[in-house]
Write a structure and sequence with these properties.
It contains nine helices and ten strands. By secondary structure, it is of the alpha/beta class. It has a single domain (3-173), classed as TIM Barrel (Alpha-Beta Barrel), CATH 3.20.20.70. Strands 1, 2, 3, 4, 5, 6, 7, 8, 9 and 10 form a ten-stranded mixed beta sheet that branches. Strand 8 (170-176), helix 7 and strand 9 (197-201) form a beta-alpha-beta unit. Helix 3 (75-83) packs parallel to helix 4 (101-113). The longest helix is centred in the last third of the chain and has 17 residues, at 206-222. The radius of gyration is 17 Å and the shape is globular.
Length: 242
């Protein structure tokens, strides 16, 4: 069964990989809100297969059993979990959460009525439903580069990127390894009018992040783009679930 048919066809809640930030407090580790206390709802399933993905348990069934690494949760259950914490920011991530965006609308509405604010982490291949383009909802859109190992026609969807750019509620975050890749980012920025731009060094260890950050910093500054980090990797000995 395809990911889209599986997700859109079910009626009994959202397919969740994990929720964290209540029992062990943590921060948003990336993008414009880096360092802000946050709760995370990680949805399972993704439409891309990035080589360097650090959450392959949300989509790679050659390595993981989906029955063991995901479960369905109702909107009521997710609301109760999020409202058990005073933390204001709720990050909805994945996988690719926009696959399930129709079912996320009531969750978002419920969170907003209680004073939460929401950030989506998305790969930018699904245009946002107008019902999600409301105050206190932001999108951290991360179009994938050639370094992901995914063919361009799958990872770059012009209509979706244009919708996010026109929304005024998105920031664009690129996972980057080398200075040469900044030209690839620049071409996407110019083609689709993406702004603001955040460059995030790729790495799953502090040592790799420091090395990549230092390799990129001068060139990113010269373009007057934002440089962001993966704070959870730097801050916690075991960043899983943090």
């Amino acid at each position: 069964m395809s990911t889209l048919v599986e997700v859109q066809g079910g009626t009994d809640g959202l397919i969740i990989a994990e929720c964290f930030g209540v029992d062990q407090p943590t921060f948003q580790g990336e993008g414009p809100s880096c360092g802000c206390p946050a709760l995370f709802i990680r949805l399972s399933r993704c439409n891309l297969t990035c080589d360097w993905c650090d959450t392959k348990e949300s989509w790679d069934w050659s390595q993981f059993d989906p029955r063991a690494v995901s479960k369905r949760m109702s909107v009521a259950e997710l609301l109760a979990w999020a409202l058990s914490s005073p933390v204001e920011l709720v990050v909805i991530t994945g996988g690719e959460p926009m696959i399930q965006q129709a079912k996320l609308i009531p969750l978002v509405q419920g969170l907003l009525t209680t004073g939460k604010r929401i950030e989506f982490e998305t790969n930018g291949t699904f245009a946002p439903d107008p019902a999600l383009l409301v105050d206190s909802v932001r999108f951290n859109v991360s179009p994938k580069l050639a370094n992901s190992g995914v063919v361009e026609e799958r990872r770059i969807v012009p209509a979706a990127l244009e919708a996010f750019a026109a929304s005024g509620q998105a920031a664009f975050k690129f996972v980057t390894r080398t200075v040469a890749e900044l030209d690839e980012i620049g071409a996407l920025v110019d083609r689709y009018g993406l702004d603001p731009v955040y460059v995030m060094p790729e790495g799953t260890t502090p040592e790799t992040l420091i090395e990549t950050t230092r390799a990129l910093a001068d060139a990113v500054a010269a373009r007057r783009w934002h440089l962001t980090q993966r704070l959870h990797v730097l801050a916690f000995p075991d960043p899983r679930g943090r």
